[in-house]
Amino acid sequence: MNVLSVASEVFPLIKTGGLADVAGALPVALAGHGVRVRTLVPGYPAVVQSLTSSEVVAEFPDLFGEEARVLAATHAGLDILVLDAPGFFDRTGGPYTDATGKDFVDNWKRFAALSYVGAEIARGRIAGWKPDIVHAHDWQAAMTPVYMRFTGIANTPSVMTVHNLAFQGQFGPQIFPSLALPPEAFSVDGLEYYGDVGFLKGGLQTAWAITTVSPTYAHEIMMPEFGMGLEGLMNARASELWGIVNGIDTAIWNPELDPHIAGTFSAGSLRRRLVNRKALSDRFGLHDDQGPIFCVVSRLTWQKGIDLIIEVVDWIVSQGGKLAVLGSGDQGLEGALLAAASRHRGRVGIAIGYDEPLSHLMQAGADAILIPSRFEPCGLTQLYGLRYGCIPVVARTGGLADTVIDANQAALTARVATGFQFTPINAEGLRQALRRVFKAYHEPKVWARLQNQGMKSDVSWEHSAERYAHLYSSLLARV
Ligand code: ADP
C-alpha cells in the first residue's frame, strides 16, 4: 500500500512540536505493516540543505505565482518529497513565522501551495508513483483533501489528522478567489467557516476519515469546551472520527543508548540516572541536594498550563523541591519564570529556547516532569518521561489521561501506576497532586516501583501503527 503523507514538519528535518515527531516516526512504524509512506514537506532552508542527493520528480512552473518543483530524496530512513519553492519557503525565521516571531502574512498561500501539490501527486503527477491513500496532517496540509474533493480526485481515500484543534488556519474570505478552486468549494460542505475560509475545517469536512491523536481527545472535541467551534462538525462526522494515540520513536528515545545524556541507564540500573541528575543540576545551577527535581519541557503557553506552575513554584521550593524549565513562548510567562529563578537561585533554573539534546538530559536527570495542560491532544513529553524513569505529573485531559496511570491506592496495590494525574486543572489541583508526589518521593521503594512500571509501559508505535494500517485498509475496501 502506498501512502502520501503531507506535513509541514517532519523530524529530524524540521521540528517545532509533536507533529514533526509523529510525521517522522509513523512511516517507519508503518513499514512493518506493508505500508510505504512518502512524506511531502516544504523546502525550508533546513530541509533543502540536509538533502545529500535528490531527483526532480515533478515541476510546477507557476504554483500560485512561484516557480516550484518536487524533489525526491531519502533521509534518516524516510522517503521524502520536498516541495522546493524558494519564493514560499526559502526564508529566515521558523516554518510559520519570521525572525521576530510574527506569522508570515502569506501563510495561507504557502500552505495552500503545499496542499495543492499534495493533491496533484494524488492525481498522478509523479511518473511511476501514485498513492493509494493520502494522509494530511493539521491545517497546513488540510487543503489537500479539499483540492482532491473539488478538482476531481475524489476516488482516492484521504485521512485528515488533527494534532491540535487550536490551530485552524482561518483566513478572510477575500483569499478564496486565489485558491484555484471552483465556487462550490466555498460552501458549508467545503471551506466556508463562519464566513471565512477555514483550512482545517475544509479538510475535516472533505477527508474520508478524521483521526486525532488520542481516544480521550477524540471524545473531548465533540464538546463545546474543547471543540474550538468545530464540535458540530466533529459530531456530524463522529462515525468517521478515530482516536489513535501517538507512540514515540523508541530508537531515538532510548535511555540505554542515548548519546545526548551524561550516562546511559535502564530500568535495571536506575542508580545510574544519578549522573544525569548531577549534570542537569550543574546545567541549571541547582543545588545538588536531596529533594525532587521537577522539569518542564514545553512551549510556554496558556494551553500548557505554565501559569499554574508559576502559581505553585514558591510552594514547590518551600517543600524542598527544585524546578528546571526548558521552553520558549509567551513573553509574560517567560518573564515570570525568569523572576522565579532569580527569587530562588539554586532551586529554580530556566533555559529559554529550543534545545533538542538538552530535552533528553532533562528527561534522564529530573525526577518528575510537570505537564499541567488545559487541553492536550496527545502530548509526547509524558511518553518520554515514562521511558526515562522521569515520573509524569499530568492534567487529566486528552492523551495525558490515556497514557499515564494515576498512582491512586488501587493502582499502587495492583502495581500498575506510572505517574500522577490531577483534576480540576488549576493551581490547587496541581498542588494536591504534588503533595502526593512529594510523599511518594520520600518512599524510595514506591518511587522506584513507579519508575519501573513506567519504563515497562509500551510507548512504542507498534500498536498505533497497526491501527493506522487498519484504517487505511478499511478505506481502501470502500473504493
Ligand atoms: P506540542 O506539539 O503541543 O508542542 P507535544 O508534547 O506533543 O506538544 O510535543 C512537543 C515536542 O517538542 C516534544 O518532542 C518535546 O520534547 C519538544 N519540545 C518542546 N519544547 C522544547 C524545547 N524548548 N526544546 C526542545 N524540545 C522541546
List keywords for this structure.
479 residues, alpha/beta, Rossmann fold, 2 domains, six-stranded parallel β-sheet, 20 helices, 39% helix, binds adenosine-5'-diphosphate
Q: Spans of 5+ residues with little confidence (pLDDT < 50)?
A: none
Strand order in the largest sheet: 3-4-5-2-1-6-7-11-12
Let me know the average pLDDT.
97
Separation, N- and C-terminal Cα atoms:
14 Å
Fraction of residues in H or I helices: 25-40%
Number of helices: 20
What is the CATH-assigned architecture of the largest domain? 3-Layer(aba) Sandwich
> Which compounds are bound in this model?
adenosine-5'-diphosphate
How large, in whole angstroms, is the Cα Rg? Answer: 23 Å
Please name the fourth-level CATH homologous superfamily of the largest domain.
Answer: Glycogen Phosphorylase B
Estimate the global geometry from the Cα principal axes. Answer: globular
* Biggest sheet statistics: 9 strands, mixed
| CATH topology label of the largest domain | Rossmann fold
The beta-strand count equals 18
CATH level-1 class of the largest domain = Alpha Beta
The oligomerization state is single chain
What percent strand?
A: 15-25%
Structural category is: alpha/beta
Whole-number tally of structural domains: 2
